[in-house]
Every structure is written in C-alpha cells, then in structure tokens.
Amino acid sequence: MFRIGLALTLIATALVSSLEGQPGGFAAGKFFLNIRLGEDPAILPPPWRAQAEPHIARSPLNPRILLATFQDGRASDSDGGAFGCGYGISVDGGFTWSRKLVPSLTEGVDRGLFRRATDPVAAFDGSGNLFLCTLGLSGTGTNETGRIVLSTATGPGDLFGPPQSIFGSDDPTLFPDKCWIAVNAFPGTPNAGRLLASYTRFSLSSDGQNAFGTPIQVTHSDDAGKTWSVPKSVSPEFCQGSIPVFLPNGTLVVGYWNYFVTGSVRALQQPEVVVSKDGGTTFSGPRPVGVVSPHDDGVARTGSNLISLAIDSQRGMLFLACQGRIGGVPGILFSRSVDLGTTWTPLLRVNDTPNAASVFNPAIGVSPDGQHVTVLFYDKRHSEVTGQFVDAYLAESFDSGTTWEPNRRLSTVSSDLRKAPLTPRGRMLGDYQGIVGSVGMKIPAIALWIDTRDETPDPYCAPIERQKGATFETWKRLRAGRPGLTDTAALEDAADPDADGFSNLVEYALGLEPDAPDPAPVFRVEAGSPGGRRFVSVGYQRMNAARDVQATWQGSEDLAHWAEARPFSEETSDGSRLFLEEAVATFEVSPGSMSRFYRLRVARK
User: Fold this and answer.
1) With bands split at pLDDT 50, 70 and 90, how would you rate the model's confidence at 489?
2) Which of 157, 483, 502, 513 has CA 20 to 30 A from 107's CA?
3) Minimal CA–CA distance to 380: which of 424, 411, 403?
4) Residues 6+ apart with CB under 8 A from 339
C-alpha cells in the first residue's frame, strides 16, 4: 500500500543573502489613482451638496470588501450636522464603489427619525455583518438633542435596516458627541462578537455656552445591537474624541484626548488610553501617551483635539496619530505602544512639510502584521499665502514606525477650502478622515478624504500599494523585552524560547508568536490518482507579507535521506486571518514509490 506522510520538523537555515528588493506598486513620486466614491444622491437639495467627515472599515472575512461612510449634505449653519449620512461599498478592494444614503435616518431620507445626522463611523464583525454608527440630531439651538444609533446590514449586497438606539437623551443639557464603534471580530476570544460604542457626554448649561463635564462613556451589546449595557464613564472629567479598539486577545482599549481642565483653564493636553481586559466591564486608569501643544488651522475646521488609533491584528500593538506643534511648527505626530499603552514611543513628527505650513486631520492605518504604517493627513505645502488650498498627503513607514519614508502627495488636484461649507469653526471638510491598512503585498491600503475638485466637497479615495514586505529583524525588535524574550539570545534565528518545537525564524514565517507555545501547524494533506497518476497536495498557512524568507520542500522515502522536492504546482489564497495566506503545494509521486514523506524547509533569503 502506498503511504504518504509529513515530517513536521521545520528546518530554519541561517542567512544566505541580504534582502535587496521587494515587489511593489507605485514608484515614489508617481501619481496615485484618485477615485471618487460615486455621484451625489439626487435627493440632496442644491444647497446641500457637500460631504464631510469620512470613515472607512475593512471586512476581516474578505479584505476586498470595504465600507465607507460620511456626512451627506453637510449644513453651513450653526446647528451643524448634515441632510443625512451616506455610505459606499466596494467589493474589489476600493477600485469601484456603490453609494447610497443611510435609510430611515433623517427626515429628508425615507422620513427618518432625525432632523439631521453627523459623526458617521463604519465597522464589520467577524461574521461579515456591516455596521454604521451615527449621531441623530433633533431640535435646534439650545433645544437640540442627540441620539446615537446603529444601522446594520448582513452583507455587502444587502440594505441597511432601520436605525436602532444605542444612547440618547431628551434633555439638551446632556448631549452625546463624537460617537465611535468597535466590534470584537476575533473568534475564540472572550466576548467575541461584542459591539462597543463610545462617545463624549456633554453636561451643559441651559444656554449651551458652558460645559460642566465631558467624560468619555462606553456601552456594549452582546446581541448585535438589540440591547445595550448601562453607560459608564471611563475617563477623567474633561475629554473628547474617543476611539475604541479590540485587540486579537479580546482586550479592549479606548483612546481619547484629555484637556486637564483646572477651573476653566486647560492646563495641558495629551492623548491617553484606558484598558479593559474583560471587554468593557472594568477599566484601568489613564495611560498617557505624551503632552501635545495643540495646533488649529486658520481656515479649515480641524480635529485638533482628536486622535486616530489603530492596531495590528497579529500582535495587538497600538498605533496613534494626532496633530500638534513641536517647536512651534505644525506637525502630524505618531507614537506606538507594544504593552497595552503602559509605555509609548516619544511623539514623533512624521510629516516633512516645508515652511511650517499647516497640516491637520491625520488618520492612521496599519497592516495586519504591524510593519506597514500609513498616515493620511491634509497638508498646505502647495497653498498660496492665505492658506485656502489643501492636499491629501501620505506619511509611510515599513518598519512599524521606527523610520519614515519621504511624504507623498495622494491628491492629484488641490482642494479649495472656499468651496467647503463655512461653519462657526471654519471651512468644514471634516473633523477626521479615514484609512485602512494594506493586507499582504497584494491588497493596498485605502485612504479616504474629502476633496473639492468637483466644485462641491466629495469623498475620494486612493489605493496605496505596499512597496516593501515585512522583515524578520523588525519582527524580532517588536517582540524583544516581552516576558521570556528579555535575553538577546532568545530571539536568535534558531532559538525556541517558548519550547514549542518551532524556531523564531519558523514562527515568523508561519505567522506564529515566540512567547507562547503554538500547536503544530495544521497541514492539510490530500492524495489522489486521477488518470492513474498519483498526486499529493499539502496545504499550510504562512505570513503573507514576509518576503525575506522562503519555504522549500524536501522529500524522502525512508525519513533518513532527503532531497529537494519540486511541486507539480503551487497555489496561494487568503488565509484564515488577515496576516496569513494559504499555500498549497501539489507533488506528483513516482509510480515505483511505496512510501513518501515531505518536510518544509524555512530559510532566510
């Protein structure tokens, strides 16, 4: 009887040659593709043709499915908000879009619940459901009230259902603002599938002129948004701009901006995070990122008190961007934490804007492996002296934010801010914008901003192809210092600090971790004899952005003598997690062989 088998010992080989090049997309300096997210809905009244405040999310099940959202029909008056909120869906990684208005949200759309809407945010869960979180506005002036609502769709081709209430108040002196939503999309973790909404709860005077408190509050749902927990405050008393994120182990982190108000004076300002290891029931105290000297643009309304927060889905590191000043010069600031926000790298300016020109509204995206970091921001380096023109720019790092490439211009046409709605705080493109990180080397990051090239502000996006793959050296550096990895020798290529039988080089190549024992990689083996020819197919998962290692096969008939085994064919497809790909090697077995074994050899290039 013919026998097949796998030798599960994976060989790690020392460095053969240095990594000298990577497959890439756009060369530095080449124009990016600028894609408009469809036409304005016909229902928008002529004076309400502006979009603002974009956000974007990527499906964890199919990374080519994207959900974008934005204010649709932004108002110019002091009441704020928009005619409605719109959304766009792409199923090809951001190259084409279908665009609609969120149904039943505002009076102008399906005779909805609210006079206006604002603060839209998009999300996916681990089953592929789509979520839009928005703030509905009722009343006007000092009688305006707000309610945070959730709209849900079960797939990219389905319609969103009617908005379901998350939190709101009929008392205009208790007003929710800057809502955000996160979903625990990591199967097998505590509270998998949990929805977590955060917002700023304003306690206002009756005339709306004074705030007595603005803490960050959170509430969660374990039944897809049907019911929500009692809201709780998780921050100091005067904060703004919260963003919650779930990590790969189910831990929840909420970032926000702390004003440090004493009396009525802001003593200092800094981003902070709080951490919940039980998914939002109990929280740590504030963990500061660093003090920031604020920066506001002189023409545009900007999110000077807002952060952008992202994670990698492999290790669970935190990546933060905000705007501020260093040495009096406007900057886009970056910091990273590898220990749940306990310590952060010093805030670093990542823009190279000349002449101290204004920059604002950063959004940060991170690849699932954590090494490709992309920061979108508005930049006035091409503007005339009055500062009326702005461009979308990109800051980019390929080593997890340790070093940065020269900035690249994303927008092919500058936007004239005078075409944006005029609000009491300046011309309104949005308090924030959106970006999602690249996936492997094949699926680009997508930056989403508001652009005025078409006379009124419209949502535009640009695909950002990854130019360089992950490296083993960066992988080791980001894991050094963890328990069990404090000794330099513990991160040598052939070391096995967690004693699970896989060297560090193998752990890196297969998307595993060196500080926790991993089960043996599951090799899927299939054998067949179509047309009398015998074939063996072996499948396994590997890190999709690793380009400085290679995996080759060896074969044996007696487990003692091994030789190179060339597959008849090799195929790759998406893996079970965003940082993985599935590889399948098929071998043709010679007719005279009664036993055949295969093993995988992992080596540095």
Assistant:
1) confident
2) 157
3) 411
4) none
Query: Residue 293 corresponds to which tokens in the numbers above?
Result: 């000297």
Cβ atoms of residues 346 and 361 within 8 Å: no
Same domain membership, residue 422 and residue 524 = no
Residues 80, 33: Cα–Cα separation, whole Å: 32
> What's the total number of domains in the chain?
2
Residue 25: strand, helix, or coil: coil
Q: Is the CB of residue 384 less than 8 Å from the CB of residue 390? A: no
How far from 336 is each of 323, 364, 373, 544, CA to CA, in Å?
Answer: 15, 11, 11, 23
**Are the C-beta atoms of 180 and 199 separated by less than 8 Å?**
yes
Last residue of a domain, one of 438, 462, 486: 462
The amino acid at residue 219 is: T
User: What percentage of the chain has pLDDT greater than the value 90?
Assistant: 80
Residue 460, Cβ density class (10 Å: 0-12 exposed, 13-18 middle, ≥19 buried): buried
Q: Please, are residues 58 and 579 in contact by the beta-carbon 8 Å criterion? A: no
Structure tokens, 116:
């206006």
Which residue range(s) make up the domain with 327? Answer: 312-462
396 plus 488 within the same structural domain: no
Does residue 446 share a domain with residue 566?
A: no
Q: What is the pLDDT of residues 346-387, one digit of tens each?
A: 999 999 999 999 999 999 999 999 999 999 999 999 999 999
pLDDT (tens digit, 9 = 90+) per residue, 404-441? 999 999 999 999 999 999 998 899 999 999 999 999 99
Note whether 457 and 366 are same-domain residues: yes
Residue located via tokens 């499915």: 65
CA 443 to chain centroid, in Å, comes to 14
541 inside domain: yes
DSSP state of 489: G
Q: What was the pLDDT predicted at 464? A: 98
Dist. CA 333–CA 346, nearest whole Å: 9
Q: Indicate whether 443 and 510 sit together in one domain.
A: no
Strands (E), 247-358: 252-258, 261-262, 265-266, 270-276, 287-288, 308-311, 318-326, 329-337, 348-349
CA 599 from centre of chain: 36
Give the residue-averaged pLDDT of 18-41.
Answer: 62
Instruction: Give the other-Cβ count within 10 Å of 158's Cβ.
Output: 12
**3-state class of 591 per DSSP?**
coil
How do residues 269-297 score in pLDDT, each as one tens digit?
999 999 999 999 999 999 999 999 999 99
Same domain for 410 and 489? no
Other CB atoms within 10 A of residue 1 CB:
4
Q: Give me the chain's average pLDDT, please.
A: 91
